[in-house]
Each structure stands twice: as structure tokens, then as C-alpha cells.
Amino acid sequence: MDAILTREILEDRWNRFLVCSEAAIRSHPELFREIKRHLENVFSRSIDVSEYYPLAKKLSEMLRELGRHHEESIFAYFGTHLDPQQSGDPRYFRAMCLDLIQQIQQIERWRMQGRSLRRIK
User: Fold this and answer.
1) Distance from C-alpha of 24 to C-alpha of 50, rounded to nearest angstrom
2) Based on the number of CB atoms within 10 Å of its own CB, is 114 exposed (0-12), middle (13-18) or buried (19 or more)?
3) Tens of pLDDT along 16-57?
4) Which of 4, 53, 64, 99 is deepest in the core (most CB within 10 A)?
5) What H or E segment, with its residue span, contains residue 6?
6) Which helix (H) or strand (E) holds 75?
7) pTM of full prediction above 0.85
């Protein structure tokens, strides 16, 4: 029987995901920006069925590259789950992309909380 997941265990896992995801972003900042641009492209217009496969394939390749050395990052997870040759499904592509955007926003909030710098407008 599996061990019971406690809140502490889940928080520890989440913190590991955040740390590994931040390390992946630091190692490839330009690739991270390109992924964000691709995600904006997904929601800025309608995607034809014929565009799904190349778009999903490119996005999953970039995510896997970003998460290659950081297996516990969210990028490794989404790289597999968005790939049309693995477990990616066109019916859930936008929903998965939205979930990825929300995860990225959470990582960015977490990164900002750990910094003492403030943005001045």
C-alpha cells in the first residue's frame, strides 16, 4: 500500500518542483522566453487542426529541452504531456497550455517573493 500523502510531503514536492523549474529557467532563459511566446501564440488566435501537430511538437521539444537536466521541473512533465507522439491529445491542447501558463505564473510569483528587489514605475 502506498504511503499517505501529507501536506508536508506535498509542500516538499512542490518546493522541489519550484527550485528545479527555476534552475531550468536560469540555465536557458532565451528558451524560456521562446516557450512563453509560443504559448501566447496558442491563445492569440484560432489554431487549425493542421497546425496542431507541428505546434505541439515544437512546444514539447522546447519544454523537454528546458527540463532535460532538471527532471523534477514542470517543464519535463509538460514536455511529455503536450507531445502528440506520447500522451498529447488535441482535445486537451489548449487546456494543457493554459495549465502550463498558470504554472509559469506561479513560478514567476515564487521567484519574485524570494527577491528583495522591487520594480519601480
Assistant:
1) 31
2) exposed
3) 888 888 888 999 999 999 999 999 988 888 888 888 888 889
4) 64
5) none
6) helix 74-82
7) no
